[in-house]
Prior knowledge:
By secondary structure, the protein is an all-alpha fold. The protein has 2 domains: about 5-125 and about 155-270, no CATH class; about 330-365, no CATH class. The chain is about 75% helix and about 0% strand. It has 15 helices and no strands. It has helices at about 5-30, 35-55, 70-90, 95-100, 105-115, 125-140, 145, 155-180, 185-205, 215-240, 245-250, 250-265, 275-305, 320-345, 350-365. Helix 3 crosses helix 9. The longest helix has about 35 residues, at about 275-305. The protein is elongated and about 140 Å long. The termini are far apart.
Amino acid sequence: MPREATSRDWLTLLVLTVLWGSAFMFNELALSAFPPAVLVAGRIVIATVFIWGFLRLSGARLPPLGRSWLPMAVLAFFGNVLPFHLVAWAQQHIDSSTAGILMAVMPLFVLTLAHFFIPGARLSPLRVAGFVIGFSGVIMIIGPSTLLGIESSAAFWGALATLGAALSYAVNTIYARRLGPGDPLRRAAGMLIIASMLSMPAAFVELPAVVIPGMLAIVAISVLGLLATGFSTILYFRLIQGPGPAFLSMVNYLVPAWAVVAGALLLGETISQTMVMGLGLILAGIAFSEFGARAVPLLQNVRDRLLPAPPRVPVRISARPREAMDRRSSLRADRRLQARRIVRLSEGTPTLPARHRQVRRANRRPGHRPDGLAS
């Protein structure tokens, strides 16, 4: 059961936001020396070594070989290999801040997929409205002219690849929900081991394209593996097991904002007004989808407090309906009395007039005395 968030949990959330939001910036720095496939493989291998060492220090062991590794293979592909490759390739054509903003639509994909694959997670009108608001922000960032084919550029395909990465993360989230509970550290270690093996073939193909890396590129890929992937995984599971997923969902609003700030301050990227407005629409769509239903009762309470209640008109009860009720009751009583008399007659029980007639007949017999004595 989730507990109340402490100051330590808030600090953990802030660190997680910085690590995940800075990953786009470090991707761009590492791409100066490493091609996308080599960058992804190096990042995952470094994170695997870190998580495996942490697993050994904690005294836990990897799951036994068998069918239990098949779900971890699915999580490895949709949660690490595919989105890492798509984002790394996309950032060759778009800025890190743009990639961070477009990745913010992942919760909208999750809500849409949950409607079809999670029992009870229905798409309400508020969630549909939030989805429309969020994707209007995506259209604003990419540009209507690019979407209509008026301007064909690599930036469009880069943005589309980033959206594909967000969709892959959403599929991974839905699959993890359907998979059910399990040991998070063992699952993460097994997932990263499989992801390392899946990313190696493409890395060997692109290995000849590696440029002699400078210190900045080496630091960037090391930070991506150790902190943005390995250490952040441990922080992620600690927040899941502590305050819970609802508290962790706030990272969806903080990561895109930090990605924009890091790209502008540390890389000198230009932040246009269109990007800021698009980010605002995406975050508004997420908030509308996740918290819209909860806000309706709150808004109704606020309305009831601000608006005066209509005056109550006293209701006068006249005596006529009461008299009519009494009259109907007396009629029912008469009908019941008549019904009882009819039943007595049918059973042969003499009523009062019939008894009088029997007495008169007896008095008319010869030799009968009124006192009942023989003459």
